[in-house]
Write a structure and sequence with these properties.
By secondary structure, this protein is mostly beta strands. It folds into 2 domains: 96 residues, Immunoglobulins (Immunoglobulin-like), CATH 2.60.40.10; 88 residues, Immunoglobulin-like (Sandwich), CATH 2.60.40. The protein is 9% helix and 47% strand. The chain starts with a helix and ends with a strand. 20% of the residues are buried.
Length: 210
């Protein structure tokens, strides 16, 4: 009789545990690229997903945001819902001074999921661009490099005698970037480059004198 009671209790406990995962459970840890530091206060948005794997869209074409949670001081987050009206889920991750992330990873119903992710921090480069003696009206400079956003070439060409500008460019933090520049000086063409490490959330000053 005692063994039968234990067996029945085990079945009920198993059924109870199984029921816990009929919905959706997602948890993990968000850290910083390069340093591995925990990212606290990051927003993890849970988005409903259609049966074909794409984000579920309502009639207005807006993604079905189900809920959002925030990481704790150690970068941990957790979301759990025993009811799931969608075929599955994806997540979006955002935090001020970090590149927003849309990980290409789906989360199906009926299973607990552990998902860690590293967010890319931003940094900034402060470029002092200056034409120095001897100067003439035909002097010309163009700069470009491994910045975090696409830079229009037309926006980074400067001509003339009196070029003296301060330019801020966002880039990746905890990252080694390479800035190229080419210029014409007294009708002679030159090219050069500068390599610099950009700490997360910091602004690195650079001089490009030509």
């Amino acid at each position: 009789m005692k063994n039968a009671i234990i067996f029945l209790f085990s079945i009920l406990l198993f059924a109870s545990c199984k029921k816990d995962f009929e919905g959706i459970e997602i948890k993990g840890r968000i850290t910083e690229v390069g340093s591995g530091k925990p990212v606290s206060g990051a927003k993890v948005t849970i988005v409903g997903r259609g049966s074909d794997g794409s984000p579920w869209l309502s009639g207005g074409g807006i993604s079905a945001i189900v809920d959002s949670v925030f990481t704790d001081a150690n970068g941990h987050y957790s979301y759990r819902n025993v009811e799931s009206p969608f075929g599955g889920y994806i997540i979006l991750i955002s935090k001020d001074k970090y590149q927003p992330a849309n990980p290409p990873h789906g989360f199906d119903n009926g299973f607990p999921h552990n998902f860690d992710y590293q967010l890319q921090p931003y940094a900034w480069v402060k470029i002092h661009l200056k034409n120095v003696n001897p100067v003439n009206e035909s002097d010309w400079v163009e700069f470009f490099g491994s910045f975090a956003r696409s830079i229009s070439t037309a926006d980074n060409i400067y001509m003339g005698m009196n070029v003296d500008k301060i330019i801020y460019e966002p880039t990746y933090g905890n990252y080694k970037i390479l800035i190229y520049y080419k210029y014409i000086k007294s009708n002679i063409k030159y090219s050069d480059s500068i390599e610099v490490f950009t700490p997360a959330h910091d602004t690195i000053p650079l001089d490009i004198f030509y």
